[in-house]
Amino acid sequence: MKKIVCIVFLTMLMVVPVMAQVTFGARVGGAYSCLVQKVEGMYEAGARFGFSVAGLVDIPLYKRLSLRPEVAFVHQGGSFISNYQVDGAKNSLYKCRYHSIQIPVNLAYTFVIKDVQLGVFAGPALDFSLFGKMKTENQNVDIQFGQTEEADLKSFDLGVSVGLRVDYRRYFFSVGAICGTLDRRSVKQEGESSLYQNNVTLSVGYMFR
Question: Coil, strand, or helix at residue 103?
């Protein structure tokens, strides 16, 4: 029993100083998002502008290395062509805009240059799509995420997050990109390419130090 108490006590001694250095923050920014597909041997990207609002935490790990997870509410989307290689089928252009919860879990390294901190970060990002609209030539319908209809998209994506951040006192500016790795098509016709969601976000933020 005494050994267990000692272990718990020593663990707390190690954890408390780290937790004391944990800082929380928030950011808001504009997002340039696109749906990317390969058409006749060339990559095509249908893009649109949206926004991103996030809360984040910076957890020191070792010297200038830290863990920096976020929870973001994102307005994203893009456009893509369906049936473009199917014989006898009419090409259809789909324009979509939808909202998602993104959870990047970034590993960050910070360089200190006088009063300015320059950080680079990278890591995996989870994307859970919630609701949105998809527009064609004749109609504007709700996206039923996870359904197996042609006008729908898959509800989950796993992305790769990379970015750059500049801190000055409690304020920061960041540019980050998330590149999806999973095909977002719910239904893929014969000859159609995979469809990937990418976005780039420019943000300003504040750390509650």
Answer: strand
* Residue 40 φ/ψ, nearest 5 degrees: 50, 45
Q: For residue 188, what are the domain limits? A: 22-208
- How many structural domains comprise the chain? 1
Which is more confident, 17 or 199?
Answer: 199
Run of H or E including 53: strand 42-62
pTM of the model: 0.83
Phi, psi of 8 (to 5 degrees): -60, -40
Three-class SS of residue 201?
strand
Quick one: what percent of the chain has pLDDT higher than 70? 83
Checking DSSP bridges between strand 65-82 and strand 92-113, what pairing results, if any? Answer: antiparallel
Express each pLDDT in 182-202 by its tens digit: 999 887 777 778 889 999 999
The tokens for 25 are 């923050």
Nearest to 71 by CA among 102, 107, 31: 102
